[in-house]
Amino acid sequence: MKFQARNPADMFINQLEQAQEKNQSLVCVGLDPNEKKIAALGIELSDWLEQLVDTTAAHVCAFKPQIAYFAAMQAEQELTDIISYIHQKHPDIPVILDAKRGDIGSTAEQYAREAFERYQADAVTVNPYMGGDTIEPYTQHKDKGVVVLCKTSNAGSGELQNLKLANGDTLFETVAKNAVHNWNQNNNVLLVVGATYPEELDNIRQTVGDMPLLIPGIGAQGGDVKATLEAGLRADGKGLIISSSRGIIYAGDHPDNFALKAQQACIELKNTINQYR
Amino acid sequence: MKFQARNPADMFINQLEQAQEKNQSLVCVGLDPNEKKIAALGIELSDWLEQLVDTTAAHVCAFKPQIAYFAAMQAEQELTDIISYIHQKHPDIPVILDAKRGDIGSTAEQYAREAFERYQADAVTVNPYMGGDTIEPYTQHKDKGVVVLCKTSNAGSGELQNLKLANGDTLFETVAKNAVHNWNQNNNVLLVVGATYPEELDNIRQTVGDMPLLIPGIGAQGGDVKATLEAGLRADGKGLIISSSRGIIYAGDHPDNFALKAQQACIELKNTINQYR
Predict the structure, then answer these.
(1) pTM higher than 0.90
(2) Tens digit of pLDDT for each residue in A76-123?
(3) Which of A90, A146, B188, B199 is the most core-located residue (most Cβ within 10 A)?
(4) Which residues of B touch A103 (CB under 8 A)?
């Protein structure tokens, strides 16, 4: 146990909000290692990751490694190591493993083992298409966060998510409602809502009350900070995890200053966000 | 290139149908290595996998390793090795990597690399919740199969998939229609439909024409062979990949005969299926 939880039932969410308070930041740095860009810097993956983590840790509320990049380059060991490194050197900052897993119960248990036992992540992103019984194997880990896709940031997300149902709701509204009313028995569910869709974000915030939302799509994907905060911020100035990957980690392209450039981009995003809180 | 494709545009589907013809089988053996059960047999994971593959290869049309089990036990190397082993020893039998991946385009490209380059799978299962633009990074690999979740076999799959839309269709029907009309430009899309829902299978078959369907849920999950074939078989007696994992690979529990028991269970399923074709 790397920190003392006030209430084991919502440990991840507590840790997240404590980090938001301590660092006065809603920023989450996404760790998406692009093999070619890192090779061009001429440094090792582990070194690249540790430098980024060290220069930004005082200005974030979470780190979010994207497992697809690690898997494509056979870097399971580096993923294990960087999560362990964050837990040791920056124990106040929780780690969200971005994996978007989804499968039937017996298989989902294996994915939960992958995220929470093997990689020691504090939270994991999951896909709701298969239904609530496939989310339960994650939420039964009461101390962990389970971040369910609701309205994603990509251009084509409306193809299914914005379909209008017979009862007048859209599909993403149903996911938000089911998340609040059915899937959140252990108070450890969060939702993913893209910054690229502030109208849908507003709608989801009204549906889910205080539930924290993970917001990708700021920066390279075009999401606007002001519109995001107006739509999604809670009255207490929290409730959002605003994630940026490429806009921070690739802000610089020189081995001597990429980490400093990332720190500057991270601080800039933190300050831009805070001026609207 | 491990086989000669007649038409590169539908290479996986050709290979699949050639294997169905050659082995007179619609059976796919799911390779879901349960760490405890294999430890109880007292044999190595690679040995367990190779024995199962060798005893069943003459009676199947595909193998389907479930990556979650491998990931939970840090067995990436064994997964790589068994796929390579199948390609070498049983080159007529395609491999479907069951991974149910889904993410925005730039990340989906990494997952496509994971499945097709790193693991050399012939096909991969993917989740449609994020929309067609997140499926394209897989389908652009024209020689590979992309198996999209439509109506899954789990008890709770209806929670979202059977929602009725304003236009009268259900969500899974929309997935089936979009798969046929929008996502299948390269003729390499298939759908997952659970054997546990023959009525929905019948509906989907009518919607998708000749598109091959991967059918989990036979055996341990309770799906019925006769009802599945009546609902989903094409006029040519093909069009289905009927997958069984636990019912075959754990048919025996003794190191001296588990592979033989698996072979018997596989042949039995093949014959049961063929009597209704």
Answers:
(1) yes
(2) 999 999 999 999 999 999 999 999 999 999 999 999 999 999 999 999
(3) A146
(4) 66, 68, 100
